[in-house]
Every structure is written in C-alpha cells, then in structure tokens.
Amino acid sequence: MNDNLHTLRCFGCGARISGGEARPDFRCADCGDLFEVEYSGWADRKDHNRPNAGALRWLWRERRCSGELLDRSGVWRFRELLPILENFGNAVTLQEGNTPLYALPRSAKALGLDQLYAKHQGMNPTGSFKDTGMTAALSVARERGFEWVACASTGNTSAAMAAYAARAGMRSLVLIPEGKIAWGKLSQAMDYGAVTCQLNTDFDGCLRVLLEIVREAPIYLLNSMNPYRLEGQKTPALEIAEAFDWNVPDHLIVPGGNLANSSALGKGFKEMKELGLVSRVPKISVIQAEGANPLARYMSARGEKEFKPVEANTRATAIRIGNPASWKKAARVVEETGGSCLDVTEAEIAIAKADLGAEGLGCEPASAVTLAGLKKLRAQGAVGDGETVVLLLTGHTLKDADYTIDFHRGTLLQPDEAAGREVEIAKLRRNAISVEATPAAVLSAMKDIPA
Ligand code: F0G
Prior knowledge:
Strand content: 5-15%
Strand order of the largest sheet: 4-5-13-10-11-12
Helix content: 25-40%
Mean pLDDT: 95
Order of helices and strands: EEEHEHEHEHEHEHEHHEHEHHEHHEHHHH
Bound molecules: ligand F0G
Number of strands: 13
C-alpha cells in the first residue's frame, strides 16, 4: 500500500521537493527557508486526489467507535488529511489526540462572553500538544529507517520525542537549556530513556548546536522545523471543527514560542476550508510572554522593521524562545485569518493560570497566556460579546508544579511585577496552611478562608 501523496514546498521561494530530498536541517537548499507539506489537487474540485468532505466526516465519526489502534488515535483517525507515510502500518502511536473541549463558564462570565471553551492539549499521553506532532514526524523517521532521533527543547518536545522513540524501539537525543526547563519535563525524558544533554545555553543555543550535529551524523531532527510535526499538530483544528459540528469558532487563541503550533492549526483550518469541510476559518491569535515576544514586536511594527530575535526571559519556560523558527508561517496565519499577536506580562500569565485553576482546569503557565491574551483582546474590542472563543491549552498543570506552588505561596512574582494587581492576586491565592491536628482547628481554618 502506498499512502504517501505529499510533496514539500518551500515557504520562502516556493521550490518543491520530494520528502526524501529534504536536507537534515529541513531548510531549503535555495533560500534557506522552511518547508511545508503540500498535497496536490486538494484545492481543485475536479481533481481525483481531492478527498470528499461528506464521506470524510462520516468515516472519521465511525472511527471513534473502532477498536483499531490507528483509529483510536486522534491524529491517525484523520489520516486522509495527513498522507505522509508510505504505509500507515508504520505509524507509532500512543493514542494521542481526542482531547477534551471544556466550557469555561466562570471566565466567560467575567469577560462578558457567552461561549468560551478550552481545548486541552495537555490531556495527551505525555501531557502536552507535542504528542500530536511527534506521532506524525517520528513515524516518518521510523519509516525512513533512522535509528536516532533528536530535538532541542524547552521540555515538552523532548518528553514527547523520548516517549514515542521508546515505543518505536529507537534511540533519542535531547538537548535542553540547563536549569531552564520544568522538572516534570526533564523527568519524562529520563524516564523514557533519552540521552539527555543539558547545555549551558538557552533554547536557541541548543537548537544551533543540534543543527550542526544533524548535518554531520545520521540523526533525524524532530524539532518543529521538521514539517511533518505540523501535520500532526494540525489535527486539533479538525477536532475543534468536528466538536462544533463542522462550524468553526470565531476565535482561536494559541500560545506562541517557536511558533509552529499556531502555524499548524492555521494550516489545518485552511485545508479544511479548501476541501469544503468548513465554510470559514477562525481568527487565529498568537499570544507571547512579554519577555519572549519577537513576533508580537514585529507584528505591532508591521512594515517598518525586520523581524528581530530577542534575548528571551519568562517564567513560562516552555515559551522562553527568542528566535522562533516558524515566525513567517505564524505571521501569515495571523494576517490571513484576521487575528492578532500580543504579549502579556508575568503577572497577567500567573493570574490567568490561577483563573483557569479556579475553574478546575490546570495548565502550564505557557498555556495560560491564552486567557491573559483574551482579556486584552476583549478590552481592545477585538472579540465581540456574541462571539465564540476557543483557547488552546498546550500543557498539563503537573508539568510545572513548582510554578503553581510558588504562586499560591506568594513567592512567584516580585513586588514590581505584581504592582497594581495585589488584590486580584490575593483573591486567587490558596496557600496550604499548617493546622493543628484536631477537628476544631481544621473547622476553624475553613471559616477563615473566603470562598
Ligand atoms: N505551550 C507549551 C506548553 C509548549 O511546550 C510550547 C513549546 C508552546 C506552548 C509553544 O508552541 O513553539 O509551537 O509556538 N514548546 C517547545 C518545546 C518549544 O521544546 O517543548 P510553539
């Protein structure tokens, strides 16, 4: 069976190559830009390769009741939209995807919105959205006969890669910035047996070193410059459309780090529209941390300046990235869909994370930028009262428990960071208290804490 129907198209100069011709760093030999996976004929209604929208919707729903391993994956369930393997039998899956879409009634009320949801990608097998991309790209690596895979990471990519490599019986190499990733993520890379190297540099530095390594040794690069990662990461867009009965929300709000996820989701919606699965696409907005905001800076100064990397610094370590590889793709998604790109402060991130926690939904700090960004978009009038909004939560709360504990203990933010927000923060904080081991003391402690 040959399921493979794709070519790679350079995002910069438009050059087309076959999958096997890609260089180890996945950069275009002519212009140095990144590739994206293209499926010919999808935009042409008469082309025989064009999948049929009605049949697909039916098939994908049927697969939800199937016991087949591939059908149980929320990525490979949609495999007609990612024909990237010679044989789907080579797919390495941990039954990723099919993540929950939760209503957020408290935040919706506070923001004066009727319809606010969180698509929780932290509910994936390794606790982040990276699993959806990893199942796709690591399957390609396996099919092409690689023994080693590698990534530079702020923690989640490495956790996902290490797990999928272990499942496939492959070796994995992780480069992480020493002391700058959350412990939960580091523990996962160790647990899944990766060779984990902590380098005395930042994420961008780790990536630079890795690119030199993959040019020299037969190691398959699994950073998001690898276009197959994005094919897996576009599938939450399909799940969202399916959950809204093939209508789409008005807004989708996504955190921005290396900027692959926003690019992938934009691609997913664009392809669904081309294929007639949906009639429009949501406005896709990207939110960055103020200390790691190169796209937000670039897009606010549109037309005036070159894109400039920044020295990144934020406690939302997952998105502590100053030189994002996929910035051009993400900028195009934001522009084409009519979304925005903003940044939010450390205090705004911490408050938004606690707001979500108070709704029973934990997430990583990097995920909480979405709610912080929505508050700003609402204040700017960019999101209307009657509009439907989906926040993409990217990581599980237990990835970075230290952050949560520091917030509730009151040790996370410096006084200048929290200035002006003290009352709001005090209302959200729920520090653990030491109480005498008697019922009377516990009952009295309960009375002292406001609801
Ligand atoms: N949220 C979380 C929890 C992440 O781990 C990342 C990226 C992002 C958001 C940003 O996504 O890079 O596609 O814009 N983490 C990467 C990693 C870089 O190495 O785990 P992006």
